[in-house]
User: Which sequence fits this backbone?
């Protein structure tokens, strides 16, 4: 946990968040600035600053992220139309909150390559 981190504050209940899913290891919230009709953030409860800080012992968290993404994709009815999971690492890739989070985006046609 980090005192200044906004996602840690949401997890501790110190900051308002639209939590759509929670279990022992992760929460999922609605992104405040959605880039698609469905735009959720899947966030480990453990404060991991970037992809480069993920350790082998975090494998339970990662498998939970993907299990929960499947569950949420089904709930939001984007499982068959398609969705994208995005994890930005460091500023050059667009990371602005330094507590890892997986964007789950769907409900519109996605383009490739990403911007
Ligand atoms: P990043 O740019 O680090 O990959 O993604 C950070 C995401 O967090 C952005 O999509 C941004 O809109 C979202 N975000 C930033 N602050 C808040 C907030 O206070 N509440 C919510 N729900 N989302 C936020
Ligand atoms: Zn944090």
Assistant:
């Amino acid at each position: 946990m980090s005192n200044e981190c906004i996602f840690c504050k949401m997890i501790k209940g110190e900051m308002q968040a639209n939590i759509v899913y929670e279990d022992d290891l992760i929460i999922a919230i609605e992104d405040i600035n959605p880039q698609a009709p469905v735009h959720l953030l899947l966030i480990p409860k453990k404060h991991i600053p970037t992809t480069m800080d993920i350790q082998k012992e975090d494998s339970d968290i990662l498998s939970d992220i993907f299990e929960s993404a499947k569950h949420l994709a089904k709930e939001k009815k984007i499982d068959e139309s398609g969705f994208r999971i995005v994890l930005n690492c460091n500023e050059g890739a667009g990371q602005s909150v330094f507590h890892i989070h997986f964007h789950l985006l769907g409900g519109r046609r996605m383009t490739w390559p990403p911007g």
